[in-house]
Amino acid sequence: MNYVIIDRGDKLSKELVDRFHELAAARGIARNDEMPDTIISIGGDGTLLKAFHTYEDRIHDVAFIGIHTGHLGFFADWKADEIEELVRMMAESEARIVRYPLAQIELETDEGISTYTCLNEFTLKGLNNMLVAQIDVNDELFEMFRGDGIVVSTPAGSTGYNKSLGGAIIHPSIESLQIAEIASINNRIYRTLGSSLVLPQHHHCDIIPRRDQRLQLTIDQLSITRNDIRSIRCSVATRKVSFARYRPFTFWNRVREAFLGYDVK
Fold first, then answer.
1. Model confidence, pTM
2. Count of domains forming the chain
């Protein structure tokens, strides 16, 4: 086993990086910044998203471990004071690999087609005015949208922006995408479903904006502004992200701890 660490950059995270290197060296776990097989994220969910996109081209060959230094993150199993236990388990036991589905975003502009992979969520918003777009599902017209924007989330990302819009929390074992509306306006011309829509793995949706709109796309932490978008195709990616688990911490326990707390009866 060898590893690399991506950290948030704050004082505590830097201290934990130094401590992890010290403990790992004592256990014979090698540091390898170029070709690691385990990516350690120290910070929050934003740090893990950064780590994911840093090593996105090697997604088949790596597994991620999250250590959170603030509030509990959905991608982090370990707390700051548990580093010694984590290193011990990495040295003495074999991890269980858990795989989460990803989203594929194909952006067609006047310049061509660009493809992105999304771990958490993709958002599309109008900058100067409302977003106006046709929504197709499996190449057939589904609805005409007018409103602030659209969020397309993976199951892992369903607990974020999607949840705040009234979308469902989807277990990551369900390979799917969820489409949620941001403040849609309904009238005789623009009619939307008004609730989130879950698409299975073999389905796709196309968002076709009205021409010459100035739009902002956010793909996890990447932000793009364009006024020449022809269409955006969203689908479940063929690749998955892997997380190395050394102890049980189920998805529903994460949901309960994040939103309800341990004292709920």
1. 0.92
2. 2
